[in-house]
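Q: I'm writing up a methods section and want to include an example of the input and output format. Could you take the sequence below and give the corresponding predicted structure tokens, formatted cleanly so I can copy it straight into the document?
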Amino acid sequence: MKSPDESNPSEPSASRPRISRWHFGAALAALAASLGILFAMAGTASLLGRAPSPGLGIDAPGLPFASAALLLILGLLLLWTGIRAWRICRRGLRAARHPGSAAFHGKKHE
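A: Here is the clean output for your methods example:
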């Protein structure tokens, strides 16, 4: 018979934190939102004609108007998607932590 002090290696230990799919999804969503910010900033800078040059002594023209606008729209869409996915993952983490509580039992705001 096994003593209670012995632990089974297949069981997750209480001291080691378990990374769930909600944590992984929240990390990916934050990464998508960050990339969205960068794309939107690059598109805006190109539209304003203030795009940074790639290096010293290199005269590279900025992006054409259509490409810069597409980059801006893609960045804003990626930012919105990342924020939306991050909020969904945070809601899932909260629901996993408190399985007995329902979302509609919260405070009523009038």
